[in-house]
Amino acid sequence: MNGIFNKIKNTHFIHDYGLMWPFIKPYWKVALIAVLITVPVGALDAVIAWVLKPYMDVMMIEKSANTYWIPLMIIAFSALQGILTYSANYANTWVGGRISADVKIALFKKLLRYDATYFDNNTSGNILMRFNQDVNAACSGLLNNLKQFSTRTFSSISLIFVLFYNCWQLAIIAVTILGIALFPLTRVRRKIKDINQKTVFTNAETITHYNEAFSGNRVIASYNLYDYENARFDDTLHRVFKLGMKMVQRTGMLSPFMHFIVSLGIALVIWCGSYLILSQQITAGSFVSFVAALILLYNPIKGIGNNFNNVQIALMAMERVFELLQTTPSIKDNKKTAELQHINNGIEYQNVCFEYVAGKPVLQDINLKIKAGETIALVGNSGGGKSTFVNLLPRFYDVTAGHILINGEDVRNYSLLSLRDKIAVVFQDNFLFDGTIRENIMLAKENATEKELQQAIDAACVSEFIKDLPQGLDTPIGERGVLLSGGQKQRIAIARAFLKNAPIVILDEATSALDNKSEAVVQKAIDNLMKDRTVFVIAHRLSTVRHADKIVVVNYGKIAEVGTHATLIADENSIYASLYKAQLK
């Protein structure tokens, strides 16, 4: 038994429960009651075995009828045990559910604040497994399994006491066999750790397939990717199956081995007990009571292997959960941060370099000054770093080297909340939440008045299409705005940016995915949004940026040219002039 507890100790069990204490603390009284209830639940097994001794000795040997109370007591004890078991299950489920919910809330808060790099490097399935299903296994699963262990522990202690009470010689044999049967449990964690880790990540791939089938259903249908997706899913499930079989190979013999050892123990006890009865060293009542206690002790042991496997898996899930809770986003506030109030002295990029992957620069030596109220257009080859250029400003990523200044202060010295509060972003593919048009626009300012909301709707040209909707602003748009057209979604995103009323606006190819008619309407909304703001525009259609104060040509991670449309087009050898003429043709 010491080996098992040492193994549990080595899995950071105590350390993780120390970390879990803030989540347990609000419910510790109920949790304590759930544990204390397991004491009588386990002990009542021993009471039932113990009363068999007087019953056998008085009723069966002495032929006395004064033992009628014993069957009634067994019935009463069994009923009490059932009530206590239900109470323990209820309390344990309540505590596990509340702790699980609190941990998920804490993890979700952390997830929302992870930087973009984290989401770049993790699939949706992996996030769902680690932030949701690992929590279930770590909290509810572990508590349920520990309840069973707690009940069996107190039951075993009580039953071992009954064994020694009836016959200490047979008790020594029984406890020795018990130790031999439990010894393989000390090897369980080492055998299943690597398989469990692989199983978690492979199951995460399975969830990712479901998410992709949901989100990419139109692409799958339009390209007839049914066989392709089925093959990928089949491959993942095949790997899950193989891992499951490996788990059985490594631990499947545990319960049969324990069953065999336990059976040997019972056989040895019966053989030795028969001798002790014949030699009148123990009574028949003591022997029957002993055997009953032994069977009650050994029977749970036969299946404890699978239960112990589940405990180990739950402990590994707990380690993964607290690994997440202990990590901090790489992009966070400094210890001393200022609040960004106004954009007075403009924005400056000083020797900015950036790498997504070490050794592979995306931006190199970027130097640019932008006055407050200027419109800056970023153009150039695809993959040249234009989106990265603007993503560094709200600190979706942090620069690898150099500085980005606002009002002469590095953006890393401002609080993230105040920095991002001053920046509105309209993406090429804007994310809309499941809900109504009103709810999606009001995300920018939850306490906005109806007048402010209407101004944003009019400026973004949203009123042109909501008047034809039966529920108007309160029309449900479906998950990711699936019930709207591309142009309608863009206008809602622009209305959201209008309502935010931020002094800096980033337009990341906001019209590139639209047809000419939709683009004309959205461009009108964008022109309204750009008034009296510092604006960064990324656009492939150069005709939309001719009136920018500065056009910055970004090629292969470097600024190749800077100027107005007139100055750049006047130089026939400029990259911008070549791009512009190519688009005109």
Question: How would you describe what is shown here?
Answer:
The protein is α/β, with parallel strands linked by helices and 585 residues long. It contains 23 helices and 10 strands. It has helices at 2-10, 13-24, 28-50, 52-61, 69-112, 116-121, 124-166, 168-182, 188-215, 217-222, 226-251, 254-278, 284-302, 304-326, 386-391, 416-421, 437-442, 450-459, 463-466, 486-500, 516-530, 565-570, 575-584; strands at residues 347-357, 360-370, 375-379, 401-406, 409-410, 423-426, 504-508, 534-538, 550-555, 558-563. The chain has a 6-stranded mixed beta sheet with strand order 6-7-8-3-9-10. The chain has a 4-stranded antiparallel beta sheet with strand order 2-1-4-5, with no helix packed on it. Helix 3 (28-50) packs parallel to helix 7. The longest helix is centred in the first third of the chain and has 44 residues, at 69-112. It is elongated and about 120 Å long.
Short description:
The protein is of the alpha/beta class and 585 residues long. It is built from 23 helices and 10 strands.
Task: For the structure shown, list the relevant keywords.
585 residues, alpha/beta, six-stranded mixed beta sheet, four-stranded antiparallel beta sheet, 23 helices, 10 strands, 10% strand, elongated
Strand order of the largest sheet: 6-7-8-3-9-10
**Overall average pLDDT:** 80
Shape: elongated
Helix content: 55-70%
Q: Major sheet: size, sense and barrel closure?
A: 6 strands, mixed
Task: Explain the layout of strands and helices.
Layout: H1 2-10, H2 13-24, H3 28-50, H4 52-61, H5 69-112, H6 116-121, H7 124-166, H8 168-182, H9 188-215, H10 217-222, H11 226-251, H12 254-278, H13 284-302, H14 304-326, E1 347-357, E2 360-370, E3 375-379, H15 386-391, E4 401-406, E5 409-410, H16 416-421, E6 423-426, H17 437-442, H18 450-459, H19 463-466, H20 486-500, E7 504-508, H21 516-530, E8 534-538, E9 550-555, E10 558-563, H22 565-570, H23 575-584
Parallel strand pairs: 3-8, 3-9, 6-7, 7-8
Antiparallel strand pairs: 1-2, 1-4, 4-5, 9-10
Helix pairs in contact: 2-14, 3-5, 3-7, 3-13, 4-13, 5-7, 7-8, 7-9, 7-13, 7-14, 8-12, 8-13, 9-11, 9-14, 12-13, 18-20, 20-21
